[in-house]
Each structure stands twice: as structure tokens, then as C-alpha cells.
Design a protein that fits this description.
4-stranded antiparallel sheet, 3-stranded antiparallel sheet, 2 domains, Immunoglobulin-like, 12 strands
Length: about 375
């Protein structure tokens, strides 16, 4: 969370935040998924589950969960109802710690409860402890907005069917280079997108050894958020969502709220969120995906003139390329940066037209090169 949200990717942060115990990350010396496994061991070994009821006490007694970041009124800090830069005055909101716990509710502004950013239904059929009770992804939230979010994935909403007081919304996902998911999603306001992304990266790391079991046990019809995952223990997230989470992580840097809550939770249950302490761990682990995000965000391509790809999105695994210049190569990359197809000196099917086929559903980067220039285009295959 940050006060001013920028659409530019600025990511030179390599230092650490917070009050990290000396030597806490000393065994995190690898890179890629090996680093993730090392971090998992660190944040698992010290984790002492305090139980679900103890979350109420944590929210009430620890100032890190109160508004000392915006209105400074010591109310419960709720990412789904907090209006940044303006004092909220609707219903019982802002919420008094303890006094306004849910209970029943009939609309927004009645009470706050415990929101599982990774829905409980994702791991409920496998086990509930300690995931159900982990404040790194279980946060205080307006009860009604929590219910409106339901078990949907996070994403970018096109035309909202529901909007909370602070602008969080639910609706169909925007299909773009950062996500090809076509279902319903929930979108928080910009100031909290990085917070949510880092909660997901924590969950993927802390519960690495259970990620495949969670995925296999979860019911996609009752837990739509299952679409955010791919069932693996290393990459964890699906192609449809990994780039979006990294984008949110980069656009919304670590905030004072996250640092304070990270320290509070360490005192509470004995472990930390490494992606708050050292944000650069994200790209040290999901390296190729971070590269793709930077590529998509960059305006520095050397563009070929008069070139287009159609249809895009495409629904039959094929697309055509129209270029006034002769192409020397066509290279298709998947979301992980792997080469799917590489065509050297491609033949035209008609004048100035090239075809690419046999692509499965997903998002691709297509690099087109002539004798003296190159361009990278984005293609979605539905």
C-alpha cells in the first residue's frame, strides 16, 4: 500500500525493511525456486499457530492493525472500506477495535470480520490449521464487502457488478497481457494491490509443501480462486495470474502498514513475510516472469512500421502477421519466457502475410525481427 499509485514500474529496491532479527535469513542463499524452498523452511520452523480466535485479540490489541497510516483515528484498518485521504463516516465505520466485530451484518459499514485473502475454501478440504489462522493472509475486513468478494480470484474488473464504498469492485476480469482469465474477479483499490500480492507470495512460500495437495482437494466450482493457482509447489500460480501479482507487487511498494504488521505478526506467531522484508525476493524466485512483466511495461521497443497481428485474441490457436517488411524470424514465448515456436526465414502465405498456428490456450509474447529491427507483440489465445 502506498499513498500515491504510479503506473510506472520503478523497482530498484534491493534493501531490507523492518526489524529483522539478526541472521533470520542467513540460510536463504539460493536463487529461483531453490531460494523459495529455503525461505519456506525459515518461515515454517518458527511459526507457532495461535488459533483462529486469537486473531480477534491481535486485531484489537495491536496498533499495527489500527489506522495510524491515513486518518490516524486508531480504528480498524480495513483495506476494502478505507478511503485513502478522506475520513469515512458511514454506518459504524470507521470500526472501533473489538466493539464492531461481526456478528451479523445487513450491508457495508455494520461490522468487521476476518477475511481470508486466500479463501478458506481453497484449503478447507485438505486441512484448516494453521492456514485458517495465519494473519499474513487473514485480515480485518468489512463483513459485507468480505461476503461480496466471496471466493473469487483477484483481478482487474471491467464493468463492475458491485462496488464498495472505497472503490473495491467485483465483475468480469479484463483480458489483457497481464491476465487472460475470463471469469469474475474482485479488485481492491490501487493502494492495497501490492499488499495482497505479497500475502499471496507469502502463502505460496510458507505452505510450499502443501500447495499441490491444496490444489487437488479444492473444488473449482465453489472456490473460483483456485484459478489463481496451477497445482505446482514451485511456481504455484497459474499463467493467468502470476504476471498480475508481480505487476501489483512492483506498482505498489511495501508500506509502513505492512512493515508494522510484519513485525507485529512476528511477535504474535514467530515468523515473517520475507517479501515485505526483502521485496527483491519476488524476482529472485520468479525471475523469468518478472522479466516478462518488465517487457510488457516497457515502451522502449524498437518498433517495426506497419505491422499487425490478427485476430488478437484468437480462439483457434492460430493468428496471422501482416508486415510490409520481410521478416527474418518469428519467435513465440510463453508466460515463463520459454520459446514455444521459433521460425527462421518464415515463408509468406500471401503477400506480406505470415501465419503461426498450433498454439494452446494462454498468453504469449511474439518477437518479430526483420533485417534491421525487431518488435515484441502480445497475443492471447482463448
Amino acid at each position: 500500500m502506498k499513498g500515491i499509485f504510479s503506473i510506472l514500474f520503478i523497482w530498484s529496491i534491493s534493501f531490507s525493511f523492518g526489524q529483522i532479527p539478526a541472521g533470520y535469513y542467513s540460510t536463504a542463499t539460493g536463487s529461483g525456486y531453490a531460494l523459495k524452498t529455503q525461505l519456506s523452511a525459515i518461515i515454517t520452523s518458527g511459526h507457532v499457530d495461535q488459533g483462529y480466535g486469537a486473531l480477534w485479540t491481535l486485531y484489537v490489541n495491536n496498533a499495527a492493525f489500527h489506522d495510524q497510516y491515513d486518518d490516524n483515528d486508531n480504528s480498524i484498518y480495513d483495506i476494502y472500506s478505507e478511503i485513502i485521504g478522506s475520513q469515512e463516516t458511514f454506518g459504524n465505520y470507521p470500526y472501533t477495535p473489538g466493539t464492531d466485530q461481526c456478528g451479523n451484518y445487513s450491508g457495508e459499514g455494520v461490522c468487521y470480520n476476518r477475511e481470508h485473502l486466500v479463501p478458506q475454501s481453497y484449503f478447507d478440504d485438505f486441512a484448516v490449521d494453521p492456514m485458517k489462522n495465519d494473519p499474513f493472509h487473514v485480515v480485518p475486513s468489512d463483513g459485507s464487502v468480505n461476503g461480496a468478494r466471496g471466493n473469487y480470484p483477484f483481478g482487474t474488473v471491467s464493468s463492475p457488478s458491485y462496488t464498495s464504498t472505497n472503490g473495491s469492485k467485483r465483475g468480469n476480469n479484463v483480458i489483457n497481457p497481464f491476465s487472460s482469465y475470463s471469469g469474475i474477479v474482485f479488485e481492491p483499490i490501487d493502494e492495497f494491490k501490492g499488499d495482497i500480492a505479497r500475502a499471496f507470495f507469502y502463502f505460496a512460500t510458507r505452505y510450499e509443501n502443501s500447495m499441490t495437495s491444496f490444489y487437488n482437494a479444492a473444488n473449482s466450482s465453489t472456490c473460483q480462486a483456485k484459478n489463481m493457482f496451477d497445482g505446482s509447489a514451485n511456481k504455484v500460480f497459474s499463467d493467468e495470474f502470476i504476471l498480475l501479482l508481480i505487476k501489483w507487487h512492483k506498482q505498489d511498494p511495501v508500506s509502513a502498514k505492512e512493515i508494522a504488521q510484519n513485525n507485529a505478526i512476528y511477535t504474535f506467531q514467530g515468523n515473517r513475510n520475507p517479501f515485505i522484508d526483502t521485496p527483491s525476493y519476488v524476482c529472485s524466485i520468479w525471475t523469468s516472469q518478472c522479466t516478462n512483466v518488465d517487457t510488457l511495461a516497457s515502451d522502449s521497443f524498437f518498433y517495426l512500421n506497419n505491422i499487425s497481428i490478427y485476430p488478437n485474441p484468437t480462439s483457434n490457436g492460430a493468428f496471422s502477421i501482416s508486415s510490409t517488411e520481410q521478416l527474418k524470424s518469428i519467435t513465440v514465448y510463453n508466460v515463463n519466457g520459454q520459446i514455444i515456436q521459433e521460425i527462421k526465414n518464415p515463408n509468406t502465405v500471401t503477400t506480406e502475410t505470415y501465419n503461426v498456428s498450433n498454439l494452446s490456450t494462454g498468453f504469449y509474447l511474439v518477437q518479430l525481427a526483420s533485417e534491421n529491427a525487431s518488435v515484441t507483440k502480445k497475443v492471447i489465445v482463448n
